């Protein structure tokens, strides 16, 4: 485990953390993806917010489109704290396994929009953008969070 330096700005913390991860990839402590140059973590464990955000990747935020950096930062988070750092989608989607854990009825609509096939007009929630390239994606939801999913009965 490698912690993030919380004594510097979000920008500096993101730069430092990416440098650390790049060193670990360069020395083969962390494998590299065969698809891109991103680290290939064995497991990325994510939670999801009621707005469909995962990690610190929020709906309609410019960092959703980040392709070059492995770690990025935001200073205008819609929920506290305002300054955050996060892995980008290229890193998340390069993992061997991604697990998303969702609990509570306040997240039921976002879970429905992220998981169910609701057509091309569905909002592009960050949780829906979790699509491992060669890895596996598993969702873990409690009954309340799963209550709006297609084909799920309330008692399941």
From TrEMBL:
**In which pathway is this protein known to take part?**
Carbohydrate degradation; pentose phosphate pathway
Keyword Amino-acid biosynthesis listed: no
A GO BP term here is: pentose-phosphate shunt
Q: Which InterPro entries match?
A: 6-phosphogluconolactonase_DevB, 6PGL, Glc/Gal-6P_isomerase, NagB/RpiA_transferase-like
Q: Read off the Gene3D superfamilies from this record.
A: 3.40.50.1360
- Enzymatic reactions: 6-phospho-D-glucono-1,5-lactone + H2O = 6-phospho-D-gluconate + H(+)
Q: Which organism is it from?
A: Handroanthus impetiginosus
Please give one Gene Ontology molecular function term for this protein: 6-phosphogluconolactonase activity
Record's CDD domains?
6PGL
Put simply, this protein is called Probable 6-phosphogluconolactonase
Note the superkingdom of the native organism: Eukaryota
**Residue span(s) of domain Glucosamine/galactosamine-6-phosphate isomerase:** 2-139
Q: Which residues form the signal peptide?
A: none
UniProt lists the family membership as follows: Belongs to the glucosamine/galactosamine-6-phosphate isomerase family. 6-phosphogluconolactonase subfamily.
